[in-house]
Amino acid sequence: MNQVQEFNDYRSRMNEKIMAADNKVIKRFFNLDTNAYQDGALDVKTKEMLGLACSMVLRCDDCIKYHLGKCKECGLTDEEIYEVFAIANIIGGSIVIPHFRRAVEYWEELKTA
């Protein structure tokens, strides 16, 4: 199993378990997150690029993988992804570099999935 499938399977399985707990606050938080990335004054593609840059600066590998997948769904090119990577590295500094490396590896795998 490749890391894209492994990540997506794990995320789906755990989200089902979390939602099965039927906690109103958690459900509302997940709903808020989902709605924040819908088309609005900013299009979905732009929002996903923002989500990716923020996730890199915050150094959340799961979030980076999630937003890379969404960016792929939105049709981002390598050039666009690398510009997002550049912004994230400028904002976050050198501590972002290990996450950047893993992001590049995951992006390459997404392109072959």
Topology diagram in text:
Blueprint: H1 3-20, H2 24-36, H3 44-58, H4 61-73, H5 78-92, H6 97-112
Helix pairs in contact: 3-4, 3-5, 4-6
Protein name: Carboxymuconolactone decarboxylase family protein
Organism: Adhaeribacter rhizoryzae
GO molecular function, one term: peroxiredoxin activity
Question: What descriptive keywords fit this protein?
Answer:
AhpD-like; mainly alpha; 6 helices
Report on this model:
- Residues 27-105 form the Carboxymuconolactone decarboxylase-like domain.
- InterPro entries: AhpD-like, AhpD_core, CMD-like.
- The chain is mainly alpha-helical and 113 residues long.
- The chain has one domain: AhpD-like.
- The chain is 80% helix and 0% strand.
- The chain is built from six helices and no strands.
- The protein has helices spanning 3-20, 24-36, 44-58, 61-73, 78-92, 97-112.
- The N and C termini lie close together (11 Å).
- The mean pLDDT is 97.
Biggest sheet architecture: none
| Count of separate structural domains | 1
Write down how many β-strands occur, each being a DSSP E stretch of 2 or more residues. Answer: 0
| Secondary-structure-derived class | mainly alpha
CA distance, first residue to last residue: 11 Å
Task: Please write the CATH class name.
Answer: Mainly Alpha
**H/E element order:** HHHHHH
How many helices? 6
CATH-scheme architecture: Up-down Bundle
CATH topology: AhpD-like
Tell me, rounded to a whole number, the average pLDDT: 97
Mind telling me the C-alpha Rg?
A: 15 Å
**Helical coverage, percent range:** over 70%
Beta-strand content bin: under 5%
What spatial form do the alpha-carbon principal axes imply?
Answer: globular
User: Segments where pLDDT lies below 50 for 5+ residues?
Assistant: none
